[in-house]
Amino acid sequence: MGQGLSCRIRDDHGLFTAVQFGDLEIVKTVLDRDPSLLQQTTVYDRHSALHIAAANGQIDMLCMLLENPSVNPDALNRHKQTPLMLAAMHGKIACVEKLIQSGANILMFDSVNGRTCLHYAAYYGHSDCLQIILSSARTSHVAVSWGFSRFVNIRDGKGATPLHLAARQRRPECVHMLLDSGALVCASTGGYGLPGSTPLHLAARGGSMDCIRELLAWGADRLHRDASGRIPYAVALKHKNGACAALLNPSSAEPLVWPSPLKFISELNQDAKALLEQALMEVNRERERTILKSTGYSMPSPSHSEATTMDDNISEASDSQLCCICFDQLCAIEVQDCGHQMCAQCTLALCCHNKPNPTTASLIAPICPFCRSNIARLTVVKVKVNSVDQDLDLYSSPKQRKSRKSQNLSEGSSSFRGLSFGKMVGRGSGRVSLDNEYIDKP
Ligand SMILES: [Zn+2]
Ligand SMILES: [Zn+2]
């Protein structure tokens, strides 16, 4: 739109063209000669100079214009779009930031589809702009008057939330960010109890595997029916998104779900959270590979390097402890306050449930599988930098490793459904614990 924005401008005085190209000198000269020009708008779309600066990312121009007290940061064009909406639409992050600092209202609706700046950022996939708007919403008057979660789930004229738009337009980063900020994964465009589409329906239509993966990991319902009575699987088939349909087929394996409603998750530190998210995605990707293989679809493009990055991090920590539950991964997560450690996958299996049931969802805080104490916090195990001094520290003692392994056999398996424990029996059996420090008391 950058160039297109001004193509229909009748610009006798040259102001709008100069704004578009960021020519500060010309703009100053023109406005010195006739300050009233600042109130002029383009003929057809009725863009103000501020709209043009915002849409074209002319940050210096935008700052200069905003210094003038007669310039309204929430000026409306023909479609009731604000400069902030245009900046969010075009991904002009500096302009979004500056406009919000200057008091632009994030809770304005255009007259095209009744959309806010948050809808624009989500629709066009500008996750950086989305982030700025969300953090402004947390602190601004909007949080007080509207409530933050209501803002995140704000509907446009057709009932679509920003999450619907991001899912439809194949914007996985925005989908993730919105879900992380409390967007309702099951929101229906219907509203008032009427049937409508969920974000999963729209992702099935858009055909983005990444979006579908995110939504499923957040507990999206594969059986929800839209206004035509279709489940997301049917929508994916209709739009010939075969691989997506395979994942959405209700008869394929249930994905592991991120336990967002659990209270303790808010007490996760950021590193631990990121690690668990990676682990969850990795487990689900494994499941996808199986599903896709059996249906004859191959994985689309070698996706994401997250998983390998994580593996690299872990393999560096050569003296880390092997997880006592799966004997497969290294310990990455530490339970507090007890200090027991396990790998990210096992932590997830402990806290995740395979099939969320909203009616009976029990919000019982998870407990440590080793000592049964409540989990107050999860932190990332500090990886020791390969230092030369190989002190016999607590966590590399073979004696303890052995004791934890054997201790694990007596329990754990029941609470860790959803993961494969093929290796546990083979590697852990036959060991006898001589050290009862970690043995569980009934
Ligand atoms: Zn494990
Ligand atoms: Zn413990």
Automatic annotation (TrEMBL):
Pathway: Protein modification; protein ubiquitination. Residues 408-417 have a biased composition (Polar residues). InterPro entries: Ankyrin_rpt, Ankyrin_rpt-contain_sf, RING_XB3-like, Znf_RING, Znf_RING/FYVE/PHD. Keywords: ANK repeat, Metal-binding, Repeat, Transferase, Ubl conjugation pathway, Zinc, Zinc-finger. The keyword Signal does not apply. Coiled coil: none annotated. GO terms for molecular function: ubiquitin protein ligase activity; zinc ion binding. Residues 323-372 form the RING-type domain. The keyword Signal does not apply. Residues 396-442 are annotated as: Disordered. It catalyses: S-ubiquitinyl-[E2 ubiquitin-conjugating enzyme]-L-cysteine + [acceptor protein]-L-lysine = [E2 ubiquitin-conjugating enzyme]-L-cysteine + N(6)-ubiquitinyl-[acceptor protein]-L-lysine. SMART domains: ANK. ANK repeats lie at residues 79-111, 113-135, 158-190, 195-227. Its EC number is 2.3.2.27. This is RING-type E3 ubiquitin transferase. It comes from Centaurea solstitialis (yellow star-thistle). It holds the Pfam family RING_XB3-XBAT31. It is an enzyme of class 2 (transferase).
